[in-house]
Design goal:
heterodimer; A: 175 residues; mainly alpha; globular; B: 495 residues; alpha+beta; Vanillyl-alcohol Oxidase, Chain A, domain 3; eight-stranded antiparallel β-sheet; 19 strands; 30% helix; binds flavin-adenine dinucleotide
């Protein structure tokens, strides 16, 4: 169980983030109206990621208990992105909010991830997997980005929920 | 004070303090939020996608866009189009709403880049300017000389070529039609000649080019008459709609009154009963210094309008608020240039499946009261549950114009500018068409007409009744542009 949560789920998350990135970018570009705004949205992501990263470092360890909620949060954002039907009036504001939340959660997750023993093991697998999946996706032309984003969001959401239950079980067993 | 964090060998590093980072994120988010543009719609010329205008209702594929810069090249292009049978359309800032600026597979001249101020004659109070310049460009050039425009629309966001091609009107009540403020101009005729024309020209080009909707060649440059940048005192007053005619007659007799407009209530409780007027009265002072005002408070203005857009009680609330706001302007001073720079960004509306459009109906001044009474019977006071909604009606004065051919002011008229919202489903568009056609019939019954720069909800029949000189206009078009080089959707629809 532990190897699942520490080895495979972070790999799924980090590979998934990269794979989903081009699709998410398409959505973000649409929502950001101008190039300037597009770059500012990235800046807010980055500032927020710095905060998330730092908050993990500054927090009392072990902070593993929060990780499932991070997956849950990122999953929710992607599901929302995939399903949002709001008008152009509010879309840029939503995009900004999503960028801040995603940045924070990703920064936090990354700070946690690099402290895990499996992190180095992941690196090679991560790059190879991303390469293979990307080549694979280049052949899939019909499905809309929204479906990918929602699916990835749902996977993260399920991972988050699964890990929360596992943690509860672990605690029950050790009690 | 922020407490710097202690890391890296106890060195104090403020930028790694979580509080500091949180602060940066908050500030940045506020900054970005405030800079998200209010205008979110993507409309206009496009080579890769379909081209539209401000209303976005008539998407069409065009052949290509030519950014105008050089007269000789333009001339060559027009001659070539005559030889090869191509169509050319002309686009300014594309605030017209009925496909006036493009046509299927046409070459579209983007005039925005043709915008140099060529000459300012302070002594004779004139400016010579290329036609792609906006009123804003002109105001920026003349304001330091203490000069101002004679006639513009209520906002300064339009190009000069586009404004003259619809023979626009605005808040000025003394200078007559916009066409009358042009001393001379250079045009590129449909057969490719460059001509300098004046009002007394025997060929009468001006008569057709003004209000000619880009069908009689390209306006290259224009020499406009200017006036002093007078300082006005604002007078506002609340009226009943049946008091307006008398009020306006009195205002016209007041020599100090230079500019004026009014707004009629479309809120359910006071629907077409209440209105307020805004007059600009000359103080006799001139201004050389006051900077041109920028649009401020657009986000708040938009929020207020969005509340009004909800209809019902909220529209009543919006109207009460507007009255308070207008009352607060009473007694303020403003320069002529600034009085011609009404706000526009706050009107921005973006909702998938819906559109906001303008229509304008002109009505002889002495018919106003009867017209409003008839209108009250024709329109529902509360359109909260209807698809077709009216959000605003402003009134301006348009002095008689017997110079141009497609003239809307056959006598002194009030122009009622209506801001309408409706859905984009076929049924909803047809419903809007039916209402606007009914409204147009009512206007015609009172000796009025509708304005042509907007979406053509009206029938061809209604066009012909409104503009009885259309035949002569058409005849001249075919005579002066036999190959129909200058073409647009507006022309195709009506002629
Ligand atoms: C929010 C709003 C407020 C408005 N307020 C007013 C108002 O107060 N008073 C009023 O009268 N009108 C008003 N209008 C209508 C407006 O004046 C016209 O739509 C005007 O044509 C807009 O100028 P433009 O530069 O956008 O012209 P465009 O829409 O680009 O062009 C309009 C017409 O002019 C032709 N044209 C453009 N440039 C040239 C050129 N150089 N040579 C020859 N033909 C050319 C085009 O082919 C087209 O037929 C308003 C419109 C909007 C959207």
């Amino acid at each position: 169980m532990k190897s699942l949560s520490e080895r495979y789920v972070p790999l799924v998350v980090s590979v998934g983030q990269v794979v989903i990135f081009p699709y998410y970018i398409l959505w973000l570009k649409e929502a950001s109206l101008t190039f300037t705004l597009f770059t500012w949205f990235f800046a807010s992501f980055s500032f927020s990621a710095a905060m998330g990263y730092r908050l993990f470092q500054a927090g009392k360890k072990p902070a593993n208990s929060y990780i499932p909620y991070i997956y849950l949060g990122v999953g929710c954002v992607y599901i929302l992105v995939g399903n949002i039907r709001s008008s152009f009036e509010v879309l840029p504001y939503m995009a900004l909010l999503f960028q801040v939340i995603l940045g924070f959660l990703q920064g936090y997750h990354h700070a946690w991830h690099i402290e895990q023993n499996a992190y180095r093991l992941h690196a090679i697998n991560h790059y190879l997997l991303v390469g293979v999946i990307m080549v694979g996706l280049s052949f899939v032309k019909i499905i809309s980005p929204i479906i990918f984003i929602t699916t990835f969001g749902a996977i993260l959401f399920i991972c988050g929920i699964g890990l929360i239950f596992m943690k509860k079980e672990d605690r029950a067993v050790s009690n | 004070m922020l407490k710097p964090s202690l890391i890296n060998n106890n060195k104090q590093v403020i930028h790694k303090n979580p509080w500091f980072l949180g602060f940066v994120v908050c500030i940045f988010v506020v900054f970005v939020s405030l800079n998200i543009p209010i205008e979110k719609r993507k409309y206009g010329l496009s080579q890769s996608n379909l081209t539209t205008d401000y209303a976005g209702l008539l998407p069409e594929r065009i052949e290509r866009i030519v950014k105008v810069g050089d007269r000789t090249e333009l001339q060559k292009m027009v001659k070539e189009a005559n030889e090869k049978g191509h169509h050319i359309s002309i686009a300014g800032l594309q605030h017209s709403q009925g496909g006036h600026t493009y046509y299927k597979d046409s070459v579209v001249l983007d005039m925005k880049t043709f915008n140099k101020v060529l000459e300012i004659d302070k002594q004779h109070k004139t400016i010579k300017v290329e036609s792609g310049a906006t009123w804003e460009d002109v105001q920026e050039a003349i304001q330091p000389y203490g000069l101002a425009l004679k006639v513009t629309q209520s906002q300064s966001i339009f190009t000069i070529g586009g404004s003259l091609s619809v023979n626009a009107h605005g808040r000025d009540i003394r200078s007559g039609p916009m066409a009358g403020t042009v001393r001379g101009m250079t045009i590129l005729t449909p057969t490719g000649e460059i001509k300098t024309v004046t009002r007394n020209d025997s060929e009468e080009w001006m008569k057709y080019v003004f209000g000619g909707y880009g069908l009689f060649g390209v306006i290259l440059d224009v020499t406009l008459e200017l006036t002093e940048n007078d300082v006005y005192i604002i007078h506002t007053e609340e009226l009943k709609t049946n008091e307006y005619e008398a009020y306006f007659e009195k205002l016209l007799r007041n020599d100090d009154a230079s500019m004026h407009y009014a707004r009629v209530s479309v809120a359910p409780n006071s629907f077409l009963n209440e209105m307020y007027v805004i007059d600009y009265l000359n103080t006799g002072k001139k201004d050389h210094q006051t900077p041109l005002k920028k649009e401020r408070g657009a986000r708040i203005g938009k929020l207020a309008l969005d509340i009004g857009r909800q209809g019902g009680v909220l529209e009543d609330l919006f109207w009460e608020n507007q009255k308070l706001l207008i009352k607060s302007l009473d007694g303020d001073k403003i320069t002529r240039n600034n009085a011609m720079r009404g706000n526009s960004v706050f009107m921005e509306f973006t909702k998938p499946g819906r559109v906001e459009v303008l229509q304008e109906f002109f009505i002889p001044v002495e018919q106003y009261e009867e017209y409003i009474s008839d209108l009250k019977r024709f329109l529902p006071a509360n359109d909260n549950n209807d698809d077709f909604k009216i959000h605003n009606i402003t009134v301006r004065y348009a002095a008689k114009d017997d110079y141009t051919y497609l003239n809307y002011a056959k006598e002194d008229m009030f122009g009622l500018v209506i801001l309408i919202q409706h859905g984009l489903k076929e049924k909803e568009i047809n419903n809007a068409k039916a209402i606007i056609q009914g409204w147009t019939d009512l206007t015609l019954k009172h000796g009025g007409v509708y304005y042509l720069p907007y979406y053509p909800y009206q029938t061809k029949e209604q066009f012909r009744k409104s503009y009885p000189k259309w035949e002569k206009f058409h005849e001249e078009k075919l005579k002066r542009d036999p190959k129909v080089v200058f073409q647009n959707i507006f022309y195709e629809y009506y002629f």
